[in-house]
């Protein structure tokens, strides 16, 4: 189990944007011709808006964020809007060392089955990945996963994929996150918390 704290699960945001932010770059010249660079370095970002939250859970969030010491801290973040559609049958694990990029081979999946459709997610080494293609296992239970973003670490052979409630290690973008307690009301007005993938070890 990770020792990294998990963002409070029982305090759900009213709205949540949880997405992959690509690192592609486009420049357009004076003749309107565009040059496109597809580069590695995509990350997950989130923006959670809490609406009319009561004082007690707001104070719990405030304490959690203060304990992170701003951008210095790291935490595991979940996506309350996501639902897995695949059964991820078997006990999928990484098949082999020295894997990188956006393709990963796994073994021990349920043979001859669609283990997960495109859009499902999995977690490896505290990082989150999203399938770009259906994951189909062969007769031996081997499968090639194609996903985004790129692997943030090189997983070791035999590492289990976390497919139930997968999360991502994140950090705050600045030191000014959290609710505002300027009002004496017991129900706070809307406030937003954001973050992005933390690439520190």
Q: Mind explaining what this structure looks like?
A:
The chain is mainly beta and 201 residues long. The protein is built from 1 helix and 14 strands. The strands form 4 sheets. Strands 1-4-14-13-5 form a 5-stranded antiparallel sheet, with no helix packed on it. The chain has a 5-stranded antiparallel sheet with strand order 6-7-12-10-9, with no helix packed on it. It is globular, with a radius of gyration of 19 Å.
Class based on secondary structure composition and strand pairing: mainly beta
The helix-strand sequence is EEEEHEEEEEEEEEE
Q: Let me know the average pLDDT.
A: 91
Profile the largest sheet: 5 strands, antiparallel
Strand content bin: 35-45%
In spatial order, strands of the major sheet run 1-4-14-13-5
Distance between the termini: 15 Å
Count of individual helical segments:
1
Calculate Rg over CA atoms: 19 Å
Number of strands: 14
Low-confidence stretches: none
Helix content: under 10%
- The quaternary organization reads as single chain
Gross geometry: globular
Q: What is the strand and helix layout of this fold?
A:
Elements: E1 15-21, E2 25-28, E3 34-37, E4 43-50, H1 55-68, E5 75-77, E6 90-94, E7 103-109, E8 113-116, E9 121-124, E10 127-131, E11 135-137, E12 143-148, E13 168-171, E14 191-197
Q: Which labels suit this protein?
A:
201 residues; mainly beta; 5-stranded antiparallel β-sheet; 1 helix; 14 strands; 7% helix; globular
Task: Offer a concise description of the structure.
The protein contains 1 helix and 14 strands. With 201 residues, it is mostly beta strands. The model has no long low-confidence stretch (mean pLDDT 91).
